[in-house]
Amino acid sequence: MRAILVLSLLLLAGCKGHREAKGPKSYPPAAEVDVVDTYHGTAVADPYRWLEEEDSPATRAWIEAQNEVTREYLDDLPGRERIRGRLESLWNIERYAIPSKAGGRYFYARNDGLQNQYVLFVADALDAEPRVLLDPNALSPDGTVALAGRWPSPDGKHLAYALSQGGSDWREIFLRDVDTGTDRVDHLRWTKFSDAAWTADSKGFYYVRFPEPAKGEELKALSENGKIVYHAIGTAQEQDKVVYERPDHPKWGIYPGVTDDGRYLVIWVDTNESRNNGVFVKDLANDGPVVELLDRMDAQYWPIGNDGTVFWFVTDLDAPMRRIIAIDLANPAREAWKTIVPEQPYAIEGAYVVGDRIVVHYLRRAQSRIELFHPDGTPDRAIPLPAAGSASFRRDAVGRRTDRELFFAFSGFVEPETIHRYDFDAGKLSVFRRSKVGFDPERFTTTQVVYRSRDGTPVTMFLAHRKDLRKSGDLPVLLDGYGGFDIAITPSFSVEDLVWMEMGGVLAVPNLRGGGEYGKPWHEAGMRERKQNVFDDFIAAAESLVTNGYSNRRRIAIRGTSNGGLLVGACMTQRPDLFAACIPEVGVMDMLRFHKFTIGYSWVPEYGSSDDPEMFKVLRAYSPYENLRKGTKYPATLVMTADHDDRVVPLHSFKFAARLQACQAGRAPVLIRIDTKAGHGAGTPTRKRIDAAADRLSFLAHALDVKVERRFWKKD
After folding, report:
1. pLDDT digits (tens, 9 = 90+) for 557-567
2. Which of 202, 680, 698, 702 does the annotation list as catalytic?
3. Fold exhibited by the domain 95-245+252-257
């Protein structure tokens, strides 16, 4: 009965007469080649395999032609420049990153508004006048060289910092003298996904180094055989000492950290065979061997601190919502483990040891709560947050056990990120830095609703919009989702989303299965053979917006990035009738071949692999690229990717867009926007972010028949 009601409402909604956005007269030609792979006895055609060769003349010509068609279409959209102007005015506010403290000094990043990259400052005291320590904007004329990591030495005299070129995950690490602001000779290459873990004496640090890839394969080759090495200040990279490697397990991810007391090297081990991990320890004081403390890989273990030989871990072992345990290296037998902070009905999102307290960040209904515990697990107090929203911490800047202050950021859908400081001695929370916003937050409202998915599972969803909007069955809605990798999607501020709401749009953000909002069971309910649950949740979110009188199928758009791009691709191929517009960005689109490039093999625990006969069936059933069908009317689609994305390589989007254009039977546009000198998102210059946001919003406004009017942006 419910299905009939939904269908009836959708049909009625389709009769309201909104005009359909029309695509270009023609698309660049894309040859279909005769490439067929056989998986476990099943033949699967891959007619656009040639687009995997990104640097071939044919692919480069296709990219150039596609960008020309896309730019011509987007630049001609009504209201684009008006939208871009509003985006730029809102973006032009002072913004800050969470500070880190070392040697009594404070290191923090600041953007004055429209700078392409944040500038790093240092201050000798909390209230001292800061000075510029590193300005990445001076390193490239177009702002595509980004500061990808910063790690001050414990004595505050040196700064190890990483630069990324054009959005690539590859980093180069340099060393700067904090007093003089000049670089030393140190220059380290072929590192990614790793912090610089300083030793207590500030004479050097540990990091992960990969073998140099073959020339021309830097952005596509598998990232394997990472080694933990030690770099001593003032030496050449060739002299770095290998501390730990696993050539017998080339796909293992091994990442270093050093305890606050400087005694132990802690190695976090990801086998990339499951979502579980191990933790190994090396006693640096005695130059001891690497001890495989947690080697069963039977759960997740996050090391958060230590008191001598006693280590504290967040774990989901026998605790789906996670708990905190203590393990003594002097007696590591499992029967000797102690629970310090028991599991609660809501999930632990993170935990840190600061101010001689265990700081626990919980999620309750996808919103933050921060509680403090003594090291023995005795509850202390909660840190009062300013509103319902999201707290966030920088793992490399949260503080040390001996610090008497804690820094974190807080934001919401209409509350820009504010940096807060908690004083442990005074027990008070204060604002360290706040951005001056150019709009009135009181004009907007956020609610959280519950709807039911296809199998009856209740799912929460945030709805944010202007207060003056009323249900009409015809509101333009942007449905944004992710649903994967145990990542919690919580309220956060975005200038782009704010402008959408100013234009009269509704922002809908569901907490899909596969995410981390509700602990381990919620994540596992949306991974591997249960991945279809995520798509069902997203589709049900759109249907609920119709049945509850918010909108209709000609006024609903969907958007997602990375794993969220996969989400959009799968949902638009399964229900092309339900959406007016789709924006899959840097998405994983070919689920049969994703594990063959860069770091894709590390997603196998989440998705499964086509090498497995049973998982091949699951992956083929929803893989966006494999499930496009000729003769189908697909929604208006703007595929977005970047030529330097070496995490989700752009071939996914290339192949999907080419096939979608060939399959499209309707008049709606199918475009691909391929950014240059950009990657998966991190480090993207402000200029490029504004341009991309203007393209997305103008595309959505045209597809959903939203008139871009000046009255939307009356002076606040």
Report:
1. 999 999 999 99
2. 680
3. Methylamine Dehydrogenase; Chain H (2.130.10)
pLDDT band per the 50, 70, 90 thresholds, residue 1? very low
| Cα–Cα distance for residue pair 478/457, rounded to 1 Å | 22
What average pLDDT does range 146-168 have in this prediction?
A: 95
pLDDT at 584: 98
Quote the CA–CA distance of 703 and 637 in Å, as a whole number. Answer: 9
Q: What is the mean pLDDT of residues 389-408?
A: 89
- Could you tell me where the beta strands, DSSP code E, fall in 166-263? 171-177, 183-191, 197-198, 204-209, 227-232, 241-244, 253-258
- Distance, in Å, from the CA atom of 160 to the CA atom of 147, rounded to the nearest integer, reads 11
Residues 6+ apart with CB under 8 A from 341: 323, 324, 351, 358, 360, 373, 377
Considering the four listed CATH numbers 3.40.1080.10, 3.40.720.10, 3.40.50.2300, 3.40.50.1820, the one that applies to the domain covering 64-89+439-706 is 3.40.50.1820
Active site residue 492: no
- Mean pLDDT is lowest, of 184-198, 291-305, 512-526, 641-655, for 641-655
Which one of 562, 610, 653, 698 is the catalytic residue?
A: 562
Residue 641 contacts residue 695 (beta carbons within 8 Å)? no
Q: What is the amino acid identity at position 653?
A: S
What residue ranges do the domains of the chain occupy? 64-89+439-706, 95-245+252-257
Is residue 562 among the annotated active site residues?
Answer: yes
